[in-house]
Structures are given as C-alpha cells and as structure tokens.
Amino acid sequence: MGTYIIKRIMSIIPVFLLAALLTTGMIHLSPVDPAEAYLTAAHIEQTDEILAQKRHEFGLDQPFFMQYVNTIMKICQLDFGISYVSNKPVWDEVIYRIPATLQLALGSLFLAVLVSVPLGFFAGVKKNSAIDHFSRLLSFFGASIPSFWLGYILIFFFSVKLDLFPVEGIGTWQHLVLPSVTLALPLIAMYTRLLRTSILENLQEPYVLFARTRGIKEKTIMAKHILRLAISPMITGLGMNLGKLLTGTIIVETVFSWPGFGRYFIEAIFNRDIPIIQCYVLIAASLFILSNLLVDLIQMYIDPRISRKEGQQR
Question: Cα-atom radius of gyration of the chain, to the nearest Å?
Fold first, then answer.
C-alpha cells in the first residue's frame, strides 16, 4: 500500500505541470493583453511606452518556455502575482477567502451525507416501499432543478416571506443554512440513487446468502457487510464533488453573495484579473487531484479487495 501511495503522489506532479502549462498557454494565446488589462483596472492611461514597460515587468516579452519555467518557480514559492484590481498579492486574498468556501463546502457535504446515507440504505433494503418511492421522487427533483433557481426559491420563501434566514452574507449558522441546502440537494439526489443501486446489487451477492446460512444476525449483515461495501460508489462520488466544492460553487456563492473563492473567481473574470484566474485554475486542479487520492485511500481501507488487486498488479 505504501508503494501505491507513493506512485499516486508522484502522478500528481505531471498533472500539475500540465495544468501550469495550460494556464500559461491561456495567457499566451488569449486576445486579452495582461498589460492592457492591468492598466485598465488601475485606470492608467495606456501609452506604447507604459505598455512595453508592463509587458517587460510581467515577463511577457520572454519566450513561451521561459514564461512557463518562471510560472513554475513562482508557484513553488506560492507567488501567484499581484491582483490588477486590489494591487495585493493574489495568494493572500485567496487564503482570506478559503475559510468561507471551506465552511460552505463542509456544511453542504455533511448535510448531503446525513440525508442520503439513511435514505439510500432504507430505499435499497425496502424496495418499492413508501420510503423507496420518496427517495426516487427526491432524487428526480434534486437532479433536475437548477441550483440558481432553487437558491432564489429558498430566498423567496424562507428569507423574504417567512424571514427565517438572512438573504446574503456570512457570520452565523443562519447564513449557512440556505446555501448549504442549495448545494446539498443535487448531491443528495446523486448519492441516494448510488447507494440504493449498490445496496440492491450487494443483496444479490453470494456472501449475503452464506452469512445468513451461518446464522449471522440480519442487522449485522446489513451494517457490517452490505453497507460497508455498498457505500463505495458513494465515496467515489464524494471525491468527485469535493474538489468542486472546495474551489467554490460559483453559482451558489453568487446567488447568496457568499464571499468565497468561487465568487472571487467570477469577479476576476469580469475584471480580466489574469493572475487570479491563473491561481484559481491551478488550485482547482490540485484540489481535484488530492481529493481523488484521498478517496482512493479510503476505498482501499473499506474494501480490502482493492488492496489485494493493487498488490497483484505490482
């Protein structure tokens, strides 16, 4: 297992280098001149002399390979440049906004797991029952409704009409409720269906019949055997969504004026703040890679068959 972890960590390096290459190429091929974008954001009159000076300062007059190498060197030092709008280091602003996004991501993920695990489990165990029909209805609703529309509906009923929760901002647990529900509902829909399907598949496996013939209690079979293996696809889904949540769910943060990383990225696009856009892409790629690595390790712990498979491949 140790060798497998080292291999997976080493595989992060080429993916990260590729992400850095794409962001550097994006700047190189973009019709937007970073020097012009900086002067526009700073409200400085653009002259040929000032443009040439800024291009030299940003290293844009160097060959593409040198720009790429300089980008890698700066990233290793957590230097993503200076924001064109605020004139502050991008990394400092990102660190300032990450806690808000982390709070929203963990809140919505906790709510999704809290609802989908028992709902998907009982829907699979009690097929075609009332709880199964309810889980299907909730899954169809959660998978089909757009997040921005759901957010505005929740604001209208629970903030405007009932005055139970704040419309926007951050600070208390009340501010967290509506955006967390908006983010969690599509996840609940997906995880519930995944867990239900996996439960039904595992109920047909021979090991369930053998466990029953040995006289093992039904509750023990369900909790320690079926649920432990059936939850594997759901954990995979969690890994795929964790990176997206940690990089900020752009629509939800915009609807609820949540001061997180995703909203910061949208503002950077409108302001053509290229250092922030580059930083966002690199952090998003890194978080997706790390979250998938974490999920793989959890899968190996839950299902020992994966560890044996890796050992046979080596």
Answer: 24
